[in-house]
């Protein structure tokens, strides 16, 4: 248990650097492949990573650069909202996350995002492409209803082609039924 | 490359009705014992693909493998029985009776002055000593496997009364890498897995390739430029072209029977409908108007009707409509949901994926929805495609879990003779070509 701690820290640091480096590299180029799944840090952990708290003397905390992709994820709680089986209803949990995403997008009006729609592996390929489009559209429409200009919002469906969890059980299915808001340009 | 059929000289009077006949509908019946000894060379001669003696042996092996794979024939080991060139037109039936073979396929490979070859193909009923069929096939030496497939198709056709399907190809999606970052490439191979080659390099996610009626062109979906939409691939030149200028996602394409248009689905604002796309003019005609998702369209062989899936009634179910979009009505009603319908090239059946809470299975039903039969049983079987004669269904099977293999399987219409189709890597989204010319 104790041994795992530094390893986890290292992993999340690497992931953070990867994200920050990725901003400059990816903001203008076309992506050849869908982006890697987000780092596996807990979505609720954002609050404790600020540097203003009374941390131990001598430690230097880190924070996301305001307006960056890391800041977007931290401020929104998550870049991902989940859906029930064969559903594209935006539930209360998803509304809360999308609401915070919309608030952040209001602060950074130059940012453009693509909402990716995904499904679990059950269901046929073609149907899941359409279902992924429904989920991406539902999330996009919610963001637009919160005042984000539709011109800043694109969608893409990956159907069941890009799961984040590779199991074949309910836990994996639940993680894979998702819409992910991906910043494509305008972030710092 | 076209293979020219050749009426062999010395054709005797038309053979009498065959004494033996394979009943294609009873999948459980014992397969017919058949023997395909190596074709003897009249005169051994070099060709670009090896000597005629070597080719004679290889041709016989391919024919035996084809017939055996159908599940209707049981090829016997003929290595102990020597065959002389003269035996081809006057077989020593007693030797084959000893083996208990009921049918004999023999022939010869001859080098032609132009560098090509002629494969002579002869089939006999062993117990009645009657000739069943004979045909010559002229082709390039490199194309010898196709001549062997043509011979196997001739034998299959003569003994079952149905058209064969061995001289055909399969296009599919080759897969590799972890589930979360799958690399997918278009690949094409002969029906028996030979002559395998990749068509795309894996840079872009590609899905659902389908042959044009002339087998020279494919249509598929690609995520090239992060714009998921329908593309057309010309096999000879390798040319790839996106079709249609719409910014919306288009997918699930298939050619119309005349090859002049595509039928596909396109998503807009969360609704997915079916469209006809004229290839020359890129003109789109909308055929369904919601609500919900309508996708996976497939034409009847005469082009007059379209079968597709829709969730307009709640769950995903199979519907048919006229080619102009009129008379849309639901035909699938069993337990669970139903998707990916494909009309048989014979017109008599529709293959589809039957989805229950835990499984996807391959099933068939008549075009009016009656007579449903489930043919397979596994975690996820999906994406049926028909053999050119409408007797065998190819599909892909996904095993559950992290390292779950994805591979191609075939099954008879009777639900028997399930076989794995070997591919270099994992494989999905198969599509069977029509018989080659």
What does this structure look like?
The complex is a heterodimer of chains A (188) and B (437). In chain A, 40% of the residues lie in helices and 13% in strands. Chain A is α+β, with helices and mostly antiparallel strands and 188 residues long. Chain A has a domain at 65-185: OmpA-like domain (60s Ribosomal Protein L30, Chain: A, 2-Layer Sandwich), CATH 3.30.1330.60. Chain A has a 4-stranded mixed sheet with strand order 1-4-2-3. The longest helix of chain A has 23 residues, at 4-26. The N and C termini of chain A lie far apart (36 Å). Chain B is mainly beta. Chain B folds into 2 domains: 4-160, Rossmann fold, CATH 3.40.50.10070; 169-432, 6 Propeller (Neuraminidase), CATH 2.120.10. In chain B, 9% of the residues lie in helices and 41% in strands. Chain B has a 6-stranded mixed sheet with strand order 1-8-7-6-2-5. In chain B, strands 11-10-9-32 form a 4-stranded antiparallel sheet, with no helix packed on it. The termini of chain B are close together. The chains are: A alpha+beta (188), B mainly beta (437). The A-B interface holds A 30-34, 36-37, 88, 121-127, 129-131, 133-134, 137-138, 141, 156-158, 161-168 and B 178-182, 203-205, 207-208, 223, 225-226, 228, 249, 251-252, 265, 267, 269-270, 272, 293, 295-296, 309, 311, 316, 339-340, 353, 355, 360, 379-380, 382-383, 398, 400-402, 404, 429.
């Amino acid at each position: 248990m104790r041994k795992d701690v530094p390893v986890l820290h290292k992993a999340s640091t690497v992931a953070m650097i990867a994200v920050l480096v990725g901003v400059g590299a990816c903001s203008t180029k076309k992506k050849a492949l869908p982006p890697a799944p987000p780092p596996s840090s807990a979505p609720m952990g954002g609050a404790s990573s600020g540097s203003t708290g009374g941390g131990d003397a001598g430690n230097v905390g880190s924070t996301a650069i305001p307006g960056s992709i890391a800041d977007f994820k931290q401020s929104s709680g998550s870049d991902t909202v989940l859906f029930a089986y064969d559903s594209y209803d935006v539930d209360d949990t998803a509304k809360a996350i999308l609401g915070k995403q919309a608030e952040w997008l209001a602060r950074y009006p130059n940012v453009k995002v693509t909402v990716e729609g995904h499904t679990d592996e059950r269901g046929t390929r073609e149907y899941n492409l359409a279902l992924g489009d429904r989920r991406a559209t539902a999330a996009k429409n919610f963001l637009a209803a919160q005042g984000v200009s539709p011109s800043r919002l694109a969608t893409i469906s990956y159907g069941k082609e890009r799961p984040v969890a590779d199991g074949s059980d309910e836990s994996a299915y639940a993680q894979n039924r998702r819409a992910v808001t991906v910043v494509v340009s305008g972030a710092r | 490359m076209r293979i020219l059929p050749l009426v062999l000289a010395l054709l005797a009077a038309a053979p009498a009705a065959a004494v033996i006949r394979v009943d294609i509908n009873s999948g459980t019946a014992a397969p017919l014992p058949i023997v395909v000894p190596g074709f003897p060379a009249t005169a051994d001669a070099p060709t670009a693909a090896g000597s005629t003696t070597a080719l004679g042996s290889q041709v016989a092996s391919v024919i035996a493998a084809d017939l055996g794979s159908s599940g209707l024939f049981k090829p016997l080991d003929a290595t102990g029985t020597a065959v002389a060139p003269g035996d081809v037109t006057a077989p020593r039936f007693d030797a084959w009776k000893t083996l208990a073979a009921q049918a004999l396929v023999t022939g010869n490979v001859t080098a032609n002055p132009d560098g090509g070859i002629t494969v002579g193909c002869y089939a006999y009923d062993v117990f009645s000593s009657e000739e069943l069929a004979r045909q010559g096939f002229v082709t390039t030496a490199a194309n010898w496997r196709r001549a062997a497939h043509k011979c196997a198709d001739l034998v299959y056709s003569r003994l079952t009364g149905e058209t064969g399907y061995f001289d055909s190809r399969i296009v599919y999606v080759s897969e590799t890498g972890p589930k979360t970052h799958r690399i997918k490439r278009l690949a094409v191979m002969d029906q028996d897995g030979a002559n395998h080659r990749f068509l795309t390099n894996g840079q872009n996610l590609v899905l659902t390739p389908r042959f044009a009626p002339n087998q020279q062109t494919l249509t598929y979906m690609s995520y090239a430029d992060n714009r998921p939409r329908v593309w057309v691939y010309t096999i000879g030149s390798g040319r790839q072209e996106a079709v249609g200028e719409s910014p919306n996602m288009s997918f699930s394409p298939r050619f119309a029977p005349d090859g002049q248009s595509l039928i596909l689905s396109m998503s807009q604002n969360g609704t997915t409908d079916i469209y006809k796309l004229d290839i020359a003019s890129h003109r789109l005609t909308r055929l369904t108007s919601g609500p919900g998702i309508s996708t996976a369209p497939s034409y009847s062989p005469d082009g007059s009707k379209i079968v597709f899936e829709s969730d307009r009634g709640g769950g995903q179910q199979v519907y048919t409509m006229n080619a102009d979009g009129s008379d849309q009505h639901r035909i699938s009603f069993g337990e669970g949901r139903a998707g990916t319908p494909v009309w048989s090239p014979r017109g008599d059946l529709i293959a589809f994926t039957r989805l229950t809470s835990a499984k996807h299975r391959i099933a068939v039903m008549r075009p009016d929805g009656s007579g449903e039969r489930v043919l397979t049983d596994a975690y996820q079987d999906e994406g049926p495609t028909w053999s050119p004669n409408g007797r065998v269904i190819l599909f892909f099977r996904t095993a559950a879990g992290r390292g779950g293999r994805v591979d191609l399987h075939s099954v008879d219409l009777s639900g028997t003779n399930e076989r794995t189709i070997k591919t270099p890597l994992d494989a999905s989204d198969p599509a069977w070509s029509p018989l080659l010319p």
